[in-house]
Every structure is written in C-alpha cells, then in structure tokens.
Design goal:
Chains: A alpha/beta (289), B mainly alpha (297), C mainly alpha (308)
Membrane topology (chain B): Multi-pass membrane protein
Oligomer: heterotrimer
GO molecular function, one term (chain B): phosphate transmembrane transporter activity
Number of helices of chain B: 11
Helix content of chain B: over 70%
Family (chain B): Belongs to the binding-protein-dependent transport system permease family. CysTW subfamily.
Radius of gyration of chain B: 26 Å
Radius of gyration of chain A: 23 Å
CATH topology of the largest domain in chain B: MetI-like fold
Keywords (chain B): Cell membrane, Membrane, Transmembrane, Transmembrane helix, Transport
Distance between the termini of chain B: 61 Å
Number of domains of chain B: 2
Number of strands of chain A: 10
Helix content of chain A: 25-40%
Largest sheet of chain B: none
Strand content of chain B: under 5%
Order of helices and strands of chain B: HHHHHHHHHHH
GO cellular component, one term (chain B): plasma membrane
Shape of chain A: globular
C-alpha cells in the first residue's frame, strides 16, 4: 500500500514538473519560430483599461501565438511595474517620462501616445443635478459645499468619492476640472477608492455620491454631469469646448521589441483608432490638432 | 431562625434555577441564531451563483468587455498553483514533521525549529505575499508568475503540514515502532513502512485542510501572482500571470466594466464554496461511512 | 531516542554477505534522516529570511523619517513626504479590539452550548459545520460584507456610506468565530468530567457550574483560542480591504471609512518604487505586523507554560 502511495506521489510530482517546465519551455521555443509571438503583460491605468483590454482581445485574434495579460490598478502602477519588471507595457494617463505635478519623471522609459481620454464628473442617475461649474466642483471636492441643495439638487449630504493618490484620472481631473485646487483628505462623507471600476461601483450604489471617471465607464446607473454648461462628449473634446481630457500613454522599457512593439503598433493603427477605440468613447490621437 | 435561613435558601435556589433556565435558553438562542445566519449566508451564495454555473462558465475565457465570459483560466490557475504549492510543501512539510516527531533530540536546535514552525504559522499571509513579491519581482526579475505564486503559497502551507504530520505521528502507539525495530528494520524503514502508513489518514486530512486554505488564499496570490492570466485555457507555462479565482472575484466586483461582473462574482463565490464543500465531504467520507455502519449494527 | 541508539549499536550483522546490503541500508537510513533534518531546518531558514528581508527593508524608513513621526503622527501623505503610520496602527488595534468584543462572547456561548447543552445530533451538525466555515475563503466573507452587510448598515444606521470599522469588525467576527469556538470547544471538552460532577453534586445549577467551574478550568485553552483568533483578525487582508473604506483618516465614528495596516500595504505596494521611502514605510508596517504576531506567540507560550 505504501509503495503505491509513494509511486503515486512521485508520479504526480513528475507530471507537474514535466508539464510545467518542459511545456513552458516548449511554448517559448515553438513560438520563437513564428513572426509575432511572446508574452505581453500590461499593467497600470484603469482609465485606459477598457481600451487595452479590447485591444488585447483583437490583437490575440490576429496573433494567436501571443499571450496578453491585462490588469489595471492605477496610472502610477504602469510605469512602476515596467521599471520593476512586473509588466512589459505600462499604461499611464500622463507622459511618465516627464515630471508631472506630484510625480517625478521615470528615466529609461519610452512613451507611446495611444489615445485621448475624456474624463467626466459622474453622479447617480436619479440625481437631478445636470451641470456643475468649476467653482462648485472645487468647493465640493474641498469639502466646503456639503449638501446637494447648495448646487441645485435635493436636500441630501454629498458623498465625495475620490481616487487614491497615483491615479491618472485624479491627476488630470485635479489639473483640468478643478484647475489645481486642493482635494479634501478626510471627512465622514469622504472616501478614496483604488480603481475606476470601484469608483463606478461606489457612485452606482449611492444616490448621493459624486465621482469622476473617463467616459468609457459612464453607463448603467451613473450619468455624466456637464462642466460649465458643456456636456462631456467626445465631440466637445474634439472641437475644443470640453477641457477635461488628456492623452493616454503606453510605456515600455527602452524601445519596444517583438510582441510589445507589434501590440503598440496595433493600437496606433488607424483601423483600431477609428474602430473600437471610438466605440469605447475615446478619441483617436489623430483628431486632436 | 432556622426557618428563615431555609426560606432564604429556597428563594436563592429558586432564583438560581430561574437564572439557569434563562442561561440555557439564551445559549440555545445564540447558537441557533449563529447557525441560522451561517446557513443563510451559505445558501445565499449558492443560490445566487449555482444557477449560472455552466461548463462554459467553468472553462470559458473571461471576457472583459462583453457579458458572457467564463473563468476558465482563473479556475485552472487556482488548481495549478495549488498543485505546485502542495508539490513543494508536502515533502518538506512531512519531512520536517517526521524530524520533529521521530528524530528531534531535546536540544537548542529542536527548540529553534519548533519556534520557527510556530512563528511561521502565525505570520500573516500578506507578509508571505510581500516576501514573494520582492523575491520574484525585484530579486529574480521574473515578474508576477504562477510559479512565484505557487512557491509563496507553499510557504504558507509548510507550518500547517509540519504540525499535522507531527501530531499524526505522535498519536501512533509506541508498540508499532518497537515491533518494527524488533524485526530488524532500520529507522527509515520503520518510518516509511510502519509509521507513515499508520499516520497517513491524519496527514491526508490535515493536508486537505491546508489545501482548502491555500485554495481560497488571496493576499499572497494578489502580490506574488498578479490579477491577470495569460488569457488562454490550459496554459501550463509556469511563467504566465497567476491570477486565481479568489482574486478574480475581487477584481470582478471592483472592476465593474463588464455588464455581468456581479453575476461573475456571485458565480465565482459559489464555485469556491462548492469546492470547499467537496473537499470537506471527501475528508469526512470515511468517518461518515464508519458512523453509518455503526448505526446500522 | 534511547531506543534508537540501542538498536544502532547492536545492529551488527551475523553474515558477511549481508554487509553490502546493510551498508546501502544504512546509507539510505542516513539520507532519509538528512532529508528530514534539512526540511526542518528549511522552515527556520524561511522564517529567518522573511524576518531579515522585511525587517531590513522596513527599518530603512528611519533614515528619512523619525521614529516619533512614524509611530505617532497621523499624517499619512507619502507623496508629500509625511509618513505617519499612527492611523493604521490605531486602526488595526481598534479593529482587533472591536472584533474580539463581538467574537469572544459569541464564540464562548457557542462553545459552551456545544459541550454542555446541545443534544448529540446538534453537536454532530455544529462541529463539522464550524470546521467547514474555517475553510471558507476570506474573500467570500469580504464579498458578503460588501454586498450584504454594507447596504444593511446603511439602511439601519442611516449612515451615508456604511464602510468602516463596524462593517470590518462584523465581517471579521464571522471569520474568527469558528476558529475561537472550535479551540474553546476542545478546551472545555478537556475539562475533567469529575469537576463538573462535583459541582452538580454540590447542588449548583448548570449556570453556576459553567461560570464557576468549567470556564475557569478551561481558561488557558480559551485564552489560546482568543489569541489565535486575534492573530487571524490582525493579519486578515482582503476581507478587510473590501469593507473598511481605505481612506487614511482617524474615524470619528464606527461608520467612517478608515484604513488598517494590512489594507494599506496591499492597496499601495504595487504603486511604489522598490527603493523609495514610501516602500520602506510599507515594509515597516509589515514588520510591525510580524512583531505583533510574534508577540501573540509569546503570549500563547506563556499561557501554555502556566497551564502545565
């Protein structure tokens, strides 16, 4: 009986070792022969996540020998993960090769401009407020306006949802919508969330919440609020009326090679830019003048 | 005078009986409430998730944009990482358990090893994750991988398996060993042919419980394995990203991009509970069979 | 061990032909011993590496941040160079204390119920059920907390958000309850039957027997159970992350978002560079967790030492 157990354990271990290591090597070897192959790991911005995920899906269809894993946490994780070696491509809502307010430049990285990201202030669908001015937004996020009736809504306390430090959406929202005014940092009606998806979930589940995401996330139970009377649409971004947007970047360690280069090329191709990218409510880079 | 004391005594007796009644009833109340709550929670998870579990969901590729994706690669990674971690921690854990139970002399070294086992058992899981993260991402430059997650997870299993092995071996009567030595067997032969078979059921039960814990572990995997997968099914490459089902549950509920993110989270939860239930049933099966037989006779 | 020595010294072999076989047998014997010893040493090495790694990295934070600031300042604004971890330390301590306030009485009641009150068939359901609950992934408790408990808290208390210490401690209570109950259950079962019988014979009711005899007798076991439950509550990460709110502030009440050591580490570690003060500060928090868990072990050892 013991012998059986022993050989069983040995067999299992051997199988795991064999499958794991030789197969792993196999894949790497076999795919080296074809034109585009390899492993792409994308980390970083959740604002760009819908875009990178869609791109990864289409790219995999065209290049079945490439594996692409896409995940998102926040913009700063993009360049960080690339520098650390945890990812081959980092997504970031600002050009991380240059210093941006509060963040120093990353050396050794190359930035690739892939899209224009329009950002929007979001509230629950049942909220009657349609428009907020720069001043009102500044006061809400500074914690001086605390009730929706002060900006023309119901009599209810405002729940302020902010992204955590390191979010590109936060950086751009602060710079472009709040004109660099300061955020509040504590309060019993204040909460910081990690990702765009969490922001959406927080606002969706709370009728008195206010938050911000990029346009791609505005769906379901949330709606975008106009900014100084201008609706948050891709059109208004293109014609220059809506100022709350930024370029989105992919970052690589040095010049990209192999599958990474092909992937970036794929996202920048006019087919993708004018197809899926537009459908996801981003704006092609070429449309900005 | 005497009567007064007696009366007092009777009153006290009465009140303490009343107290006792209240005490017993409140225990029943607390216990049944906890039981109800727990049953409610378990049933709710299964109720919400089970109807949506199809073969397609279990083996399908996750879709991040359209509804209807599966959790195949995550479930696969969960099992793959679990196997790697068990393959690493079982031999080492059982080996050190045997050492502590059979060889360890009463000296400083043994004291040190025992302290280490206890210390390791109490280390919060996030610290194993952090350790794996630095080791594999920073030092070895491997990135977030299945292999890294498996190794980090095996560290979590090690002390548990060591302890259950030691306890299982210590429960074996000394006669068995003596008989084996008397027949001229060496120590290692005795251990292999007599002690381990006798302790096997205990070791298996304990290891299965450790496997349960490893299967549901999330903090370690999040830091050492990442949140993604390679996005294809049956990817045995241990250098792919090692996101598992618990991580996917977390990711799906916080990354509400897909329309059916909530259903995916519900179903993932149900799959996990189902797996844990199955493992528990399997462990308990021999006991249940024995009980059933005893009841029949 | 003695037995083993005797056998070794007396294991001469009568026939010359057996010698080679015996030698391989001895080599095998020795190799196996070596394997077991190395495995056991490995555990020590792993623990040592972890402590060294986390501790060494963590202590680097004091190059840039004073000890006073790290432990006593409540200003956690790493992007502005302010590394006060007091919020998280207080958060972890108060979360654990609150959890224990809920969990210990409930667990003890349940354990006493199982041992002293419950009929046999109830015992047969309850014990396996608790074992099962220990194995349920923590992320599921967190998920239930997020989808069930927080909306419930919002409705009941009228609070606008619902996440915070109360939600987290309730989730943790459900998580540690089976652990504490099962170990206390074992401790109470181990109380010698004579003790209870003596108490009953003296005319005490069950209530009196439980509080005056059984619980005091089982105290070391119950304390161990409590400390183990505490260790689990302090180290739990993902379930807490989902319901605590993750905002670095001292909460005014139990329904205001805050953060604890574990949640803060896991939320920020991915965003920081390996050789930055911020990173070191997070490692220092992890090191604190390690120290706290080691303290727990020492406490358990003392309890055990007294019990024996």
């Amino acid at each position: 009986m013991m012998k059986n157990v022993k050989s069983f354990i040995v067999a299992i271990m051997a199988i795991i070792m064999f499958i794991g290591f030789s197969f792993g090597g196999f894949i790497a070897k076999a795919s080296a022969a074809s034109t585009v192959s390899g492993k792409i790991t994308i980390a970083g911005s959740t604002a760009l996540l819908p875009l990178t995920q869609q791109a990864a899906k289409e790219f995999k269809k065209e290049n079945p020998k490439v594996t692409v894993s896409v995940s998102g946490s926040s913009s700063i994780a993009g360049p960080q993960s690339v520098v650390k070696g945890a990812a081959t491509i980092g997504a970031c809502d600002w050009d991380a090769t240059k210093p941006v307010q509060g963040f120093s430049a990353f050396s050794g990285l190359v930035a690739h401009k892939i899209a224009v990201i329009p950002f929007a202030t979001i509230v629950h669908k049942s909220n009657p407020v349609q428009n907020l001015t720069t001043k009102q937004l500044q006061d809400i996020y500074a914690g001086t306006i605390t009730n929706w009736k002060q900006v023309g809504g119901k009599d209810a306390q405002i729940v302020v949802v902010n992204r955590k430090h390191g979010s590109g959406t936060r950086v751009n929202f602060q710079a472009k919508a709040l004109k660099n005014a300061n955020f509040m940092s504590k309060g019993d009606n204040y909460k910081e969330v990690g990702k765009s998806g969490e922001m959406l979930a927080a606002v969706e589940s709370n009728p008195n919440a206010i938050g911000y995401t990029d346009l791609a996330y505005v769906k379901g139970n949330v709606k975008a609020v106009s900014y100084n009377g201008v609706a948050a649409t891709t059109q208004n971004v293109v014609n220059g009326k809506y100022p709350v947007w930024s370029y989105g970047y992919l970052l690589t360690k040095g010049q990209p090679k192999g599958a990474d280069a092909e992937f970036i090329k794929f996202i920048q191709s006019s087919k993708f830019q004018n197809g899926s990218l537009k459908n996801l409510k981003f704006v092609p880079v070429s449309q900005m003048k | 005078m005497n009567e007064q004391i007696f009366r007092k005594y009777v009153i006290r007796r009465k009140s303490s009986f009343a107290m006792d009644k209240i005490f017993t009833y409140s225990l029943w109340l607390v216990a049944s409430m906890i039981l109800l709550l727990v049953t409610f929670l378990l049933i709710r998870i299964l109720w919400n998730g089970l109807p949506g579990i199809t073969l397609h969901f279990l083996t399908g590729i996750p879709d991040e944009i359209e509804a209807g994706g599966g959790v195949g690669p995550f479930l696969f990674n969960s099992i793959y990482i679990l196997l790697i971690s068990m393959a690493l921690s079982l031999p080492i854990g059982i080996g050190s358990g045997i050492y502590l139970a059979e060889y360890a002399p009463n000296n400083r070294l043994t004291g040190f090893i025992r302290t280490s086992v206890e210390g390791l058992a109490s280390v919060p899981s996030i610290i194993f994750g952090l350790f794996g993260y630095v080791l594999f991402v920073d030092v070895f430059q491997m990135g977030l991988t299945i292999l890294g997650a498996g190794i980090a997870l095996s560290l979590l299993n090690l002390p548990v398996i060591t302890r259950v092995t030691e306890e299982a071996i210590q429960a074996i009567p000394i006669d068995l060993r003596e008989a084996s030595y008397a027949l001229g067997a060496t120590k290692s032969q005795t251990i292999w042919k007599v002690i381990i078979p006798a302790a096997l059921s205990g070791i298996i039960t304990g290891s299965a419980l450790a496997a349960c814990r490893a299967f549901g572990e999330s903090a370690v995997i999040l830091l050492a394995g990442g949140t993604g997968t390679s996005g294809i099914m049956w990817d045995f490459n241990p250098m792919s990203q090692g996101g598992t089902l618990p991580i996917h549950l977390w990711y799906a509920q916080s990354e509400a991009l897909v329309e059916d993110a909530k259903q995916i989270a519900d179903r993932s939860a149900a799959v996990m509970v189902l797996c844990i239930l199955l493992i528990n049933m399997l462990i308990r099966l021999p006991i249940l069979i024995r009980d059933f037989r005893m009841w029949k006779h | 061990m003695k037995l083993e020595g005797n056998i070794k010294s007396s294991s001469y072999l009568p026939a010359h032909g057996f010698k080679i076989k015996a030698r391989t047998k001895n080599v095998r014997n020795y190799l196996f011993f070596l394997f077991c010893l190395l495995s056991a040493l490995m555990l020590g090495v792993v623990l040592f590496c972890i402590v060294l790694f986390i501790g060494k990295t963590g202590l680097l934070v004091f190059k840039d941040v004073s000890v006073m600031e790290f432990f006593f300042s409540t200003k956690w604004e790493p992007y502005d160079g302010k590394y006060g971890a007091a919020i998280f330390i207080l958060g972890t301590l108060s979360l654990t204390a609150l959890t224990m306030c809920f969990a210990v009485p409930l667990s003890l009641a349940l354990a006493v119920f199982i041992v002293e009150v419950a009929p046999n068939w109830v015992k047969k359901i309850l014990r396996p059920m608790l074992d099962l609950l220990v194995g349920i992934p923590s992320i599921i408790y967190g998920y239930l907390g997020l989808t069930l408990l927080i909306p419930l808290l919002r409705n009941i208390t009228g609070s606008i958000m619902g996440d915070g210490l109360l939600a987290a401690s309730l989730v943790l209570t459900v998580m540690v309850l089976p652990t504490i109950t099962r170990i206390s259950d074992d401790a109470i079962t181990a109380v010698p039957k004579d003790l209870c019988e003596a108490a009953y014979a003296l005319g005490s009711t069950r209530f009196q027997a439980v509080f005056r005899v059984i619980l005091p007798a089982a105290r070391p076991g119950i304390l161990t159970a409590t400390v183990l439950g505490m260790a689990r509550a302090i180290g739990e990460t993902m379930a807490v992350v989902m319901v605590i709110g993750n905002t670095a502030q001292i909460p005014g009440d139990l329904l205001t978002p805050t953060a604890v050591l574990t949640s803060n580490i896991v939320m920020q570690i991915i965003d920081v560079q390996f050789d930055s003060t911020w990173n070191y500060a997070l490692y220092m928090m992890a090191f604190l967790l390690l120290i706290i868990s080691t303290l727990m072990i020492l406490i358990i050892r003392r309890i055990r030492g007294k019990g024996e």
